[in-house]
């Protein structure tokens, strides 16, 4: 889904930084390596390869989305978003938290060397996916989705039942701390999927055809992670057992977590498009959907660090809370700096180019994109708290947090969307996602006895970036008439400069140990320029 070159450049630039962030976390934790692949090694390699995947895949997906948006137009682009949301919500509802529970329980059993328990968990989870979840999703899609019947049949067979058979693959690779392999496979799968989607939209430019092509390609390519598993795990995944063979503790965690995942999807995904569609505003649906998708894409390099954290936090919890506490604080601190750099540089630059790249019909999406990306940045910085919450198996707490966020989001949506249209939808998204993220952060602060001042200091860089962005975008760029090719780089550079100044003046940059760990993770010939770049967002007086 912005200029493809600028997105690719930013993603590549942050590849090293995110890899270093993983090095910082694992280096601080001082975790002894287990007999199988170590958590530290898996986290570093997983984060590095995940970000390589993002650096390659985001530009490709961006270019593909440009072709799709221009070919379909705002109305059909909005319909594509609605079709995608229906399948996503149906899948989240039917999954019942089995994937999240499998991630946690298999990681813990693997760390303890309980291979028999791992096999039993995998087979039981696969039985639920194939015999319960997939038929439920198929019924919902068949009843609700309005597409030609050949497309519907392809979607059910290859886009629903296919992934149900194969979806254990990516989860099990992560539990084995092989997020690197999962990222390599995802990189290939993304390239193939985007080629299929672009070919489809050029041959048949309809929302139904693009939706079907995308989910069929995604479903078929899920066979690759399964093939990458060890023979023992692959056999377990291909021998489904009855769901009630799963232990009681599994379901105690899975059910509330599954409900929380569904509620979380309602809070964090673009469900506001249903409100807009209900008001018969199809054009605004497309504008909002594009802005939301761009907000997700521009933060993808930072989000890439979250995937390897889920199994890593589960393993670290088995070795003591102090390790997990140290990881939580460092992830938050470094993520705030990374998100601040990406947002302050990227939002003004990409926002100015939206009418030029997507066409004037999507020009209004630029303002929505800037505001929603700022909210998403805070959510990304709080992702370490989500990983920690899942590692503590607090599915019930996660559900309650998401319910509070959903009520807040729905209240704002009902009160504002009928009056303000897309801006009401933006307000609803911002309120819901911020309430959800901040409640998780507060809960983990209490669990690890983290001071409010310490966490506020960790979050400060991303807040400084948001202030700088709003000053530049709504203050300077809104009142200066200049071609996009001028306002885009100037706005990005000005916002980034304000961000760096704010971080240095407020002394909320990276600590000395953060900076040294980041530099040491860089190859020798690059350490000098790396030290200079990292030094711009570091505070030499901070030694914690």
UniProtKB/TrEMBL annotation:
It is a multi-pass membrane protein. Pfam families: Polysacc_synt (PF01943). It is found in: Cell membrane. Keywords: Cell membrane, Membrane, Transmembrane, Transmembrane helix. The chain crosses the membrane at residues 46-68, 80-106, 127-145, 151-173, 209-229, 250-267, 287-313, 334-357, 369-389, 401-420, 426-443, 455-476, 482-503. Its main location: membrane. GO terms for cellular component: plasma membrane. PANTHER family: PSMA PROTEIN, PST FAMILY PREDICTED COLANIC ACID TRANSPORTER. This is Lipopolysaccharide biosynthesis protein. It comes from Janibacter limosus.
């Amino acid at each position: 889904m912005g200029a493809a070159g600028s997105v690719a450049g930013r993603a590549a630039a942050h590849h090293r930084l995110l890899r270093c962030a993983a090095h910082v976390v694992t280096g601080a934790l001082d975790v002894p390596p287990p007999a199988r692949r170590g958590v530290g090694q898996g986290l570093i390699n997983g984060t590095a390869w995940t970000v390589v995947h993002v650096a390659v895949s985001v530009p490709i997906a961006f270019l593909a989305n440009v072709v799709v948006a221009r070919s379909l137009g705002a109305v059909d682009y909005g319909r594509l978003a609605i079709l995608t949301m229906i399948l996503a919500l149906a899948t989240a509802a039917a999954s019942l938290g089995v994937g999240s529970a499998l991630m946690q329980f298999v990681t813990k059993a693997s760390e303890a060397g309980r291979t028999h328990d791992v096999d039993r968990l995998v087979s039981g989870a696969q039985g639920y996916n194939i015999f319960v979840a997939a038929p439920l999703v198929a019924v919902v899609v068949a009843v609700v989705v309005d597409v030609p019947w050949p497309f519907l049949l392809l979607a059910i067979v290859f886009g629903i039942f296919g992934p149900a058979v194969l979806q254990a693959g990516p989860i099990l690779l992560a539990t084995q701390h092989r997020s690197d392999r999962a990222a390599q496979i995802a990189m290939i799968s993304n390239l193939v999927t985007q080629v299929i989607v672009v070919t489809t939209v050029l041959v048949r430019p309809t929302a139904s055809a693009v939706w079907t092509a995308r989910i069929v390609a995604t479903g078929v390519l899920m066979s690759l992670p399964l093939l990458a598993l060890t023979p023992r795990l692959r056999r377990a995944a291909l021998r489904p057992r009855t769901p009630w063979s799963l232990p009681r503790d599994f379901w105690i965690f899975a059910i509330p977590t599954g409900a929380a995942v569904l509620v979380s999807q309602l809070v964090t995904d673009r469900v506001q498009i249903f409100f807009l569609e209900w008001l018969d505003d199809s054009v605004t649906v497309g504008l909002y959907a594009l802005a939301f998708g761009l907000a997700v894409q521009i933060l993808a390099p930072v989000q890439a660090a979250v995937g390897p954290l889920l199994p890593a936090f589960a393993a670290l919890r088995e070795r003591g809370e102090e390790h997990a506490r140290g990881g939580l604080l460092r992830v938050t601190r470094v993520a705030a700096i990374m998100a601040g750099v990406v947002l302050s540089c990227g939002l003004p630059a990409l926002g100015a180019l939206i009418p030029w790249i997507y066409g004037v019909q999507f020009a209004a999406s630029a303002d929505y994109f800037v505001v929603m990306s700022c909210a998403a940045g805070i959510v990304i910085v709080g992702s370490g708290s989500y990983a920690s919450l899942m590692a503590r198996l607090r599915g019930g707490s996660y559900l309650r947090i998401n319910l509070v966020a959903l009520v807040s989001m729905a209240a704002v949506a009902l009160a504002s969307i009928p009056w303000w249209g897309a801006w009401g939808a933006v307000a609803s998204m911002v309120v819901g996602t911020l309430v959800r993220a901040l409640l998780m952060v507060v809960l983990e602060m209490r669990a690890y006895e983290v001071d409010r001042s310490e966490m506020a200091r960790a979050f400060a860089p991303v807040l400084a970036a948001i202030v700088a962005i709003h000053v530049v975008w709504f203050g300077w760029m809104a009142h200066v008439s200049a071609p996009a090719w001028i306002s885009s780089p100037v706005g990005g550079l000005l916002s980034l400069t304000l961000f760096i100044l704010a971080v240095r003046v407020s002394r909320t940059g990276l600590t000395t140990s953060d900076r040294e760990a980041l530099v040491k993770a860089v190859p020798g010939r690059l350490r000098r320029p790396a030290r200079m770049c990292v030094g711009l967002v570091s505070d030499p007086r901070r030694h914690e």
